[in-house]
Write a structure and sequence with these properties.
With 451 residues, the protein is α/β, with parallel strands linked by helices. It is built from 12 helices and 18 strands. The mean pLDDT is 97.
Length: 451
């Protein structure tokens, strides 16, 4: 049965406009003028509420199978639905086994069965010694590959050096699949950490942790990635950029056509190092949240188009692993829990800067969908795309409280944040999955693979 959705403020690929979306058999069958509602078709009229495309978060640690005490498909995807995210792309580490083989990918697919509230895809893992497994993982349907240039925190997900990067890029050449890279190298981090330990620095102080992850670790890593992307003509994607110092070399590389893309995270755009209390280890992530001046440069790079997308890097853990009992940054697990909050967080920050909401479509929907090979199906309200919709009230004011956190553990640095804008409804392929603060129906999410 067809159904129609309309608003005076629909975010279409060309911008905001009054429109009616005609939905049939899980896809957008037609985009019509606001007044052109077919006779006999049920209509949902949202007045002036903003209709957004379902968001795509291409950087999420679901942690299943193997670490469901950290998160899991059921809890991660319900958090996504609550925040207007209709597609997640799962990172290959923190689950057990890590997604570094077809067998591990199969285990993940079995684990997800019947649990997902939104659609999902999987990144494969590129680790030391598995370059020959990449082609079989690609054939099995992963969206691309993720690797680390520094210790990942997970012993089973080994870092890669330049020689291993070269092996991986040679395997990926011609496939079109991107290599996603945690772009920090260990040399500057090890040197800084050793100096801090020799000086008996206070590891409860956020300034100590920030000093232990210097910007040089990111800049040097990204310089190497630029050289390799140019040499192999294979797309490389820098995940969670935090260091604005790397922006000039990225701009120069992009200017000469090097296939390198960049994401940053909501927490780097919202928080600033100056505001993080000592001992508040819920803020720990790597790379770290840097100073306010750095944050503003990241915003400038987004506005100019140098940074392509905004993701969450949702990486939760059991509360005890944050070591709030001692508040020591060197002992705490690194990862920000924020899945479901990114849209209002980013929109609140955008309003403060006088930016219009149409940019959300590129940064948080179309950009990540393109990276994951899902463009045309996800990330845009256009004919033939999946009918993934978000009803968003851009004026709603609220304060983040534990009842707003739909992921497994109610621990997040966003607690207490005063936000503007709230998701009222989320629709997945034409079916409502979230409304008025609660999940609707039963899990109907499915795996998405590249076409």
């Amino acid at each position: 049965m067809p159904q129609a959705f309309r608003s005076t403020c629909v975010l279409l690929p060309d911008g905001l406009a009054p429109a009616t979306l005609l939905i049939e058999q899980e896809v957008i069958a037609e985009v019509r003028p606001w007044s052109a509602v077919p006779a006999g078709v049920p209509l949902r009229d949202y007045g002036g509420r903003v209709l957004l495309p379902g968001l795509v978060d291409s950087h999420v640690h679901i942690n299943e199978p193997g670490r469901t005490e950290w998160e899991g498909f059921a809890t991660a995807t319900r958090a996504a639905a609550s925040g207007g995210v209709t597609t997640l792309v799962d990172m290959p580490l923190n689950s057990v086994p890590e997604t570094t083989s077809v067998q591990a990918l199969t285990a993940k697919r079995i684990a997800a069965c019947g649990k997902a509230w939104v659609d999902w895809a999987a990144w494969g893992g590129a680790v030391r010694g598995n370059s020959r497994a990449l082609s079989s993982l690609a054939e099995a349907g992963v969206a691309g590959f993720k690797c680390f240039m520094i210790h990942s925190g997970i012993d089973g997900f080994a870092l890669v050096d330049e020689s291993e990067l070269r092996l991986a890029l040679a395997e990926l050449a011609g496939t079109g699949l991107p290599l996603l890279v945690h772009a920090e190298i260990s040399g500057p981090v090890d040197a800084a950490t050793n100096r801090l330990r020799e000086s008996a620095a206070d590891w409860r102080s956020y300034s100590t942790y920030l000093a232990s992850r210097p910007t040089a670790a990111e800049v040097e890593a990204i310089a190497l990635l630029i050289r390799l992307a140019a040499e192999f003509h294979t797309p490389i994607h820098v995940v969670h950029l935090s260091a604005a110092e790397a922006l000039p070399i990225l701009a120069e590389a992009r200017g000469r056509g090097v296939p390198i893309s960049v994401e940053t995270c909501a927490h780097y755009l919202w928080f600033a190092a100056e505001d993080i209390p000592d001992g508040a280890t819920e803020f720990k992530c790597a790379p770290p949240i840097r100073e306010q001046t750095n944050r503003e440069l990241l915003w400038g790079a987004l506005e100019s188009g140098l940074i392509d997308s905004i993701v969450t890097d949702h990486s939760p853990c059991p509360p005890a692993m944050k070591r709030q009992d001692v508040g020591q940054w060197d002992l705490a697990w690194g990862g920000i829990a924020g899945l479901g909050l990114a849209l209002p967080v980013v929109w609140t920050a955008m309003r403060r800067r006088g930016l219009t909401i149409d940019r959300v479509g590129k940064w948080m929907a179309a950009g990540p969908a393109q990276l994951a090979g899902l463009a045309g199906r996800k990330g845009a309200l256009k004919q033939g795309a999946d009918a993934d919709l978000v009803v968003f009230d851009p004026e709603a004011a609220w304060i983040v409280a534990p009842e707003h956190l739909h992921f497994r553990h109610k621990l997040s640095p966003y607690l207490g944040a005063q936000l503007c804008g709230q998701v009222e409804e989320t629709w997945l392929r034409g079916a409502q999955v979230y409304a008025s603060g609660a999940l609707v129906g039963s899990p109907s999410g499915k795996e998405m693979t590249r076409r």
